[in-house]
Amino acid sequence: MLTPIQTGLAIFSGVIVGFSLGLIGGGGSILAVPLLMYVVGLDRPHLVIGTTALAVSINAYINLYPHWRAGHIRWKAAIWFAVPGILGDFIGSSLGKLVNGKDLLFLFAILMLVVAILMLRPRRDNGGGGYEWSRHDFWRVLPAGLAVGFVSGFFGIGGGFLIVPGLVFSTGMPLIMAIGSSLFSVGTFGLTTAVNYALSGLVAWLVVVEYVAGGAVGGFLGTHLATRLSGHKRLLNYVFSGIIVVVALYMMDLNLSALHFR
Questions:
Q1: Which domain covers residue 126, as residue numbers?
Q2: Domains contained in the chain, number
Q3: How far is 239 from 114, CA to CA, in rounded Å?
Q4: What is the DSSP string of 67-109?
Q5: How far apart are CA 106 and CA 261, in angstroms?
Q6: 44: how many CB neighbours lie within 10 A of its CB?
Q7: Could you tell me which of 232, 89, 62, 81 has the C-alpha nearest to residue 164?
Q8: Considering the entire predicted model, what is its pTM?
Q9: Nearest-angstrom CA–CA distance, 205 and 38
């Protein structure tokens, strides 16, 4: 049972998570887990993972609506990316259980830095809102979704950081559309994890409600800012990559022990 102070901190943490999802389509899991453990004070790691997975999933689905209203979502790309990603997530998470946790997080931080660098590379402007789904995209999105789902499941964290660039690289859609479309996969992957944990009683339902309440407010603010920044495509790229770099360096610092030979 949370104290009134912890309840307030849970709602505030939800605002931060929702803002991140609305702004860049990612960062939910990476932010939600440490916030719930170190700010709110929930100290059971598996309960934290199950709770944040469900909260981030619901927040991602909620944030779909304002992005849809703003015309940022391409549903065919979003759905066909998520479908093979579910299979990849299941396979990856099964293998990830066999690897030391600190090793996983350290390797993931390196992967995030690579993604940040790739996102900063100049790309041909496709006309902003002019992207439309084509049958050729189908064959690029399927393997991309499978691969991203596998990596997300293997590392068990940070799906949005991979889904957004995965959509950009496989379809060539503008970043703002990839952010909006990615939320469907973020929600779907998170729900898959949450159901698995809930079956084992590892979800704090009241905390989920508090996280979601805060996340709805944060998501609205993040989506509004993302829409304003979409007119400055390079700036949104810099924001996205900058957040990835900061979180990656923080994760590397926390998990430096992975470098030690055992």
A1: 4-259
A2: 1
A3: 15
A4: HHHTT---HHHHHHHHHHHHHHHHHHHHHHTTS-HHHHHHHHH
A5: 14
A6: 12
A7: 81
A8: 0.75
A9: 19
Q: Are 24 and 164 in contact (CB under 8 A)?
A: yes
Q: How far is the C-alpha of 67 from the C-alpha of 201, rounded, in Å?
A: 33
The phi and psi torsions of 255 (rounded to 5 degrees) equal -120, 30
Residue bearing tokens 């379809």: 171
* 141, containing H or E segment: helix 135-155
Least confidently predicted of 32-36, 184-188, 251-255: 251-255
CA distance between the termini of the chain: 40
Host H or E run for residue 194: helix 175-198
C-alpha to C-alpha distance for 123 and 125, rounded to whole angstroms: 6
State the DSSP code for 38.
I
pLDDT in tens, 151-167: 877 776 657 778 888 89
Query: Which string of b and e fits 108-133 if b means at least 16 CB within 10 Å?
Result: bbebbeebbeebbeebeeeeeeebeb
Tokens 């495509």, residue? 233
